[in-house]
Structure formats: C-alpha cells, structure tokens
Design brief:
By secondary structure, this protein is of the alpha/beta class. The protein has 15 helices and eight strands. The chain folds into three domains: 6-183, Conserved hypothetical protein from pyrococcus furiosus pfu- 392566-001, ParB domain; 190-251, no CATH class; 257-313, no CATH class.
Length: 313
C-alpha cells in the first residue's frame, strides 16, 4: 500500500478544519444548576490549550484502533511521567462530557498515572469530521495495523454514507489506497488476526484473497506461516491451487533440502512447544537460520505466554 506524503495528509487535515472544524475552544456551557457539568468545564492555560478533567472524557465511537497494547501504554506512561505530555489530546464537547477525537493512548496513560487533568485542544466538529480527524491522527502519528486501518475507512464510508473517493479525500489518501485497504476485510477473522499481528504481510493477504473458499484460504495461510514462504512463493502456491495441481511448489530451497529425519525432529519440537505454551507454535527451520512463531489470542493470552517465558510485561 502506498504511503502518502505528509503534505498530502496535511491537506486532508486542513480541508477538514476549513470545512467546519474550528480550532477555537468550544464555548463553556456551565450552569449553577448543573454542578456535574460545571465540574467538567476546562480550565484555560497560557499556551491556549485547556486543562480538562480526565474523568470528564469519553472514548469516540469512531475510534479505528481496536486494541491498545499494554506494553506500549506502559512505555507511554513512563515517557509522560519523565518528560511530560508533548502533544495535547484533541476533544469535542458532547453534552456534559468531552469526546476524544485524537489521543486515546495519551488519555489512558494519564488514567494509568492517576493524573486528574490533561491538556486538551477543544474543537467543534461534526461526527464525520471527528471520525476523519481521529483516523488521520492514527495514520500520521500513532500508527495503525493494516486491519484497523481498513476498518477505519469502512467506518467512514458506512457511518457517513461516503464513497471511497470521499473517504480518501477526507484522510488525504488516494482512492486506490483506500480500495486496496478495504479488500483486507474480505479475509476471515483468523487471517485478519495474522495480518493485524504482523504474522502475514499485506502482500501475502492480497495473494491469498485470490482463493475464494475461506477454508482453503486458511489452510494455505497456515502453510505460509509454517514454512515462512515469501509473497512470491505464496503466489505460486495459490496459482497451483487454482489450477488444481498438487500444492507443493514453493518452499525455500533450504527447507526443501531438509532430510526427513530433520523434518520429523522439527515437527516433534513444534508439538512439544505447542503443549508447553498451550498455543499453536510454528518452527520455521533451515540449516542456517530459523524462527519460532507463537500464536496468541489477545492481551490476556499474550500475558500468559510471557509468564511462561519468564518475561515481565
């Protein structure tokens, strides 16, 4: 997937602001008859941002990021504790609360540190603009895995009745980039998980989408992982499958040279590791190098495996 230049993304962000997202602080709506609302009102700071009660902020329903790594959150918390917050969060006023537009990880880090207020830029934004601004923030600053990025585009298109071209314009991407990203949502949940965790590349995923049957696609994906196949080797695998030939073409030469005794030893190691960790383990072995891939399901499962390894999260 092509990565847009900063200037292109910048134009996308600028277009949203000029299209009705004002950078000025939202007007205060405190009332002596509503103490809860009054308590949530931000306190202005000399730099133009506002100090907002952390407890007065809620998450956005349009957040593209579906999971936040506990490790990354801990690292960010330590950085904020040491260096302070380098970039304020962005919020909009919704009722008597503030809704996050950008900066959920920073907000959660403040919660972890038990800091009661957080610097924020309060803007006025429509639902569509808030969703697009949040997606742009993730793409530019905090990064999304390819699956979360695809779901972000899908949300813009579905929730706000946009075309792919409209969504691309709002986030400063090409229509082709958005269309290619959305194709990943044609993968079943298992394969989306592989791509989201970086076990399969986007290139692998696009090739595997050439197999229409989801069950056959999953079988091939597991083989790609187990044998450490390249995108090119995966293409040959898919072509052979579609042609109805025996699917045995493209393992790396070093893998093909493994003696049967070595292959049996690797299989035995995989079985023992799978039993030890209580998770599927693939050993990708060649005479000169290799790697061990441990699959896990979510944060709790990762924590369990780390404990097995004797690693502190």
């Amino acid at each position: 997937m092509a990565t847009p230049s900063k200037s292109r993304l910048g134009r996308g962000l600028g277009g949203l602001i000029s299209g009705g997202v004002a950078a000025k602080p939202a007007p205060a709506k405190a009332s002596p008859d509503a103490p809860a609302a009054a308590a949530a009102q931000p306190a202005p700071t000399p730099n133009g941002f506002q100090e907002i009660q952390v407890s007065a902020i809620k998450t956005s329903p349009y957040q593209a990021r579906r999971e936040i790594s506990p490790d990354h959150l801990t690292e960010l918390s330590e950085s904020i504790k040491s260096e302070g917050l380098l970039q304020p969060i962005v919020v909009r006023k919704v009722g008597d609360k503030f809704e996050l537009i950008a900066g959920e990880r920073r907000w959660r880090a403040f919660q972890l540190l038990k800091i009661k207020t957080i610097p924020a830029k309060v803007v006025e934004a429509s639902n569509a603009s808030a969703a697009a601004l949040g997606l742009i923030e993730n793409l530019q600053r905090e990064g999304l895995n390819p699956i979360d990025e695809a779901y972000g585009y899908a949300s813009l298109i579905r929730d706000f009745d946009l075309t792919q071209e409209d969504a691309a314009e709002r986030v400063g991407k090409s229509r082709a980039a958005v269309a290619n990203s959305l194709r990943l949502l044609g993968l079943d949940g298992e394969l989306q998980g592989y791509v989201g965790k970086g076990l399969l590349s986007v290139g692998h995923a696009k090739v595997l989408l050439g197999i229409e049957d989801a069950a056959q696609r999953a079988v091939l994906a597991r083989r790609v992982l187990e044998e450490g196949l390249s995108v090119r080797a995966t293409e040959k695998l898919v072509q052979a499958k579609k042609a109805g030939h025996a699917v045995n073409p493209a393992a790396p030469a070093a893998t093909r040279k493994l003696a049967s005794a070595d292959a049996a030893a690797v299989a035995s190691i995989e079985k023992k590791l799978t039993s030890h960790f209580g998770a599927r383990v693939a050993v990708q072995h060649t005479p000169k190098k290799g790697k061990i891939v441990i699959a896990y399901a979510g944060n709790d499962d990762l924590q369990r495996i780390l404990e097995k390894l004797g690693v502190e999260a």
